């Protein structure tokens, strides 16, 4: 192609790159907006600066790891999409090109995702999580993820998701990683023993409404 065409293509690519950067910055600012609101409402939840009630994770949720992938057991007869660790990003899911594996009737009852499930990464960036809103049905989850179901009379998934983010941002899980660990893991037993600051339900509900409103803005930014 001619030099002029090359210059035109380069100009278009530069503009696209800048547009992508602007979108990413907008999304980051929206997350910072929610984070600031979280701190304003709930304080430092690692040290429980507002003296909320503290509960063991196992007392206010039910949780389990997903199904282990066994290549030898795959027949393709009951093949369904599932979430792996890399599919769970902070507060959203990457659902492009999902892998599949077999889930028989018993597995489907055990591992199918439901509205409001919180998916939490067991390894890698431990605690990275997102709330499932039936983005795809049916969908299941692999062993690298914890599925957390909240007791909605005590704790809401939107609050808990941002509780995890706060802990990740400010070293709340550093003790779990261990001083010499190169890859941190959050096994089920340790997850169940986490101590969670639990604010009054009224405040959690207000925060959940705020998150939902801000998420609508995120959707608009991604569509733009």
Describe what this molecule looks like in 3D.
It is built from seven helices and eleven strands. It is of the alpha+beta class and 224 residues long. It has a single domain (27-223), classed as DNA methylase specificity domains (Adenine-n6-DNA-methyltransferase TaqI, Chain A, domain 2). Helix 1 (3-42) runs antiparallel to helix 7. The chain starts with a helix and ends with a helix.
CATH class: Alpha Beta
Major β-sheet annotation: 4 strands, antiparallel
**Assigned CATH architecture:** Alpha-Beta Complex
Which bin fits the share of residues in helices? 40-55%
Short description:
This protein is α+β, with helices and mostly antiparallel strands and 224 residues long.
Keywords:
three-stranded mixed beta sheet; Adenine-n6-DNA-methyltransferase TaqI, Chain A, domain 2; 224 residues
Strand and helix map with partners:
Elements: H1 3-42, E1 53-56, H2 57-60, E2 61-65, E3 79-83, E4 88-89, E5 92-93, E6 100-102, H3 105-111, E7 118-121, E8 129-131, E9 140-141, E10 145-150, H4 157-169, H5 174-177, H6 188-192, E11 195-198, H7 201-223
């Amino acid at each position: 192609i001619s030099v002029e065409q090359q210059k035109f293509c380069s100009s278009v690519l530069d503009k696209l790159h800048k547009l992508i950067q602007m979108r990413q910055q907008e999304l980051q600012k929206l997350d910072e907006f929610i984070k600031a609101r979280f701190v304003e409402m709930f304080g430092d939840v690692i040290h429980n600066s507002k003296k909320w009630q503290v509960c063991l994770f196992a007392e206010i949720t039910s949780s389990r790891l997903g199904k282990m992938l066994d290549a030898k057991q795959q027949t393709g007869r009951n093949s369904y999409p599932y979430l792996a660790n890399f599919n769970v990003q902070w507060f959203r899911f990457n659902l492009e090109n999902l892998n599949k594996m077999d889930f028989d009737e018993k597995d489907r009852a055990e591992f199918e995702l439901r509205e409001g499930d919180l998916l939490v990464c067991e390894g890698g960036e431990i605690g990275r999580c997102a709330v499932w809103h039936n983005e795809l049905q049916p969908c299941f989850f692999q062993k690298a993820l914890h599925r957390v179901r909240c007791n909605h009379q005590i704790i809401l998934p939107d609050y808990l998701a941002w509780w995890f983010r706060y802990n990740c941002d400010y070293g709340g899980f550093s003790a779990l990683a261990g001083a010499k660990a190169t890859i941190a893991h959050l096994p089920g037993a340790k997850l169940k023993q986490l101590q969670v600051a639990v604010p009054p339900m009224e405040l959690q509900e207000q925060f959940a409404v705020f998150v939902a409103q801000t998420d609508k803005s995120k959707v608009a930014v991604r569509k733009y």
